[in-house]
Specification:
The complex is a heterodimer.
Chain A: H1 8-16, E1 37-38, E2 43-44, H2 46-67, H3 75-96, H4 105-120, H5 135-157, H6 159-167, H7 177-224, H8 228-271
Antiparallel strand pairs in A: 1-2
Helix pairs in contact in A: 2-3, 2-4, 3-4, 3-8, 4-8, 5-6, 5-7, 5-8, 7-8
Chain B: H1 5-13, H2 15-34, H3 39-66
The chains are: A mainly alpha, B mainly alpha.
Chain lengths: 275, 67
């Protein structure tokens, strides 16, 4: 940890406005929620419970939406079909191609809905913890996507043929292959799943950290600070908290969309017949 | 004030991806303005480019906390 040595004068100014102890900025340590239920097999934490409950809620919602499939859809059916249409037509069919996309739609649809719901959990008052700000959840999804696109590619091209297809670009011959093949392998097999999970995790993590900072800092300034200027700054930062929440609404949707889009693009590239 | 220089470094590091994201969406808006019917085709490409450029910023935030 490289820390800047403290500048004593500004430290004094900062702590002068507080009563007994200074403001503790939220950090990565705030994401370690202790398990609330400890059994001999597994410790249950809040994100685990939220993840399981969200899967149950999604299943219930789409069961209710699809129960009475009518030609003229009701409100619930319309909402369900809207989400399904985004994944099936604008993500899967466009990037995988109209011949092979149907087999992958259930997986991509599960990705999209579970990420969307678990992200929006981060904005529901009193629950307020996006599940994917825990790295392990994002890794689990990325590993599933990784296995699926490699597996699908191997099914189409054969085990050795898939690596040849993915790592050797068509028309490249000669000694430049020694440079191209490791690079292509690195980018297609290693970097893709890493960026897939890092993107989701880091967006949720950074967004939640930002919201925590403005909410906690705002309340601290509003209720603990003595000078009116600091109290005004507290109100301003609390207002900013609401505005960032609106921005997060967009980011959360975008992350679910991007994850699904990238997963389906990787699958589409793996199962395509030729470049 | 006590803090980590990593955060300052990360702030500087985001300049690159920020410019990249701006350029990508500028190109997307230009394309749609010239040919509005191409929006459906351009949108996934723009989002993909945005996601790839953003990956740099995200790797940066990972490293800022880890290093």
């Amino acid at each position: 940890m490289s820390t800047v040595t403290s500048i004593e004068s500004s430290k004094v100014v900062l702590s002068a406005s507080s009563d007994s102890e200074g403001f503790h900025a939220p950090g990565p340590a705030d994401f370690n929620l202790p398990p609330f239920l400890e059994t001999s097999v597994i410790d249950v934490t809040k994100p685990m419970l939220m993840f399981a409950l969200s899967a149950f809620a999604i299943a219930l919602f789409f069961w209710a939406a699809a129960r009475k499939s009518a030609v003229v859809p009701g409100r619930l059916q319309f909402a369900g079909e809207l989400v399904y249409d985004i994944v099936r037509n604008s993500i899967a069919r466009n990037s995988i191609g109209s011949e092979k996309f149907l087999a992958f739609v259930p997986l991509l649809f599960s990705f999209f809905t579970i990420i969307l719901v678990n992200n929006y959990i981060g904005l529901i008052p009193f629950i307020q913890f996006p599940t994917f700000s825990q790295f392990s959840f994002a890794v689990a999804l990325a590993v599933v996507a990784w296995l699926v696109y490699i597996g699908a590619g191997m099914k189409v091209h054969g085990v050795f043929g898939y690596f040849k297809y993915q790592c050797v670009p068509a028309g490249v011959t000669g000694p430049v292959l020694f440079l191209i093949v490791p690079l292509e392998f690195l980018s297609a097999i290693i970097v893709r799943p890493v960026t897939l999970c890092l993107r989701l995790f880091a967006n949720m993590f950074a967004g939640h950290l930002l919201l925590m900072l403005f909410a906690l800092g705002g309340t601290y300034l509003m209720f603990e600070a003595t000078s009116p200027l600091n109290v005004a700054a507290g109100f301003a930062s609390f207002l900013l908290f609401f505005m960032i929440s609106v921005l997060e609404l967009l980011v959360m949707f975008l992350q679910a969309y991007v994850f699904t889009l990238l997963a389906s693009m990787y699958i589409g590239e793996a199962v395509a017949e030729s470049h | 004030m006590i803090g980590s220089l990593n955060m300052l470094g990360y702030g500087i590091a985001t300049i690159g991806p920020a410019i990249a994201v701006g350029l990508i969406f500028a190109a997307y808006i230009n394309g749609v303005a010239r040919q509005p019917e191409a929006q459906g085709k351009l949108q996934p490409i723009a989002i993909l480019g945005f996601a790839l450029a953003e990956a740099l910023a995200i790797i940066g935030i990972g490293l800022a906390f880890v290093l």
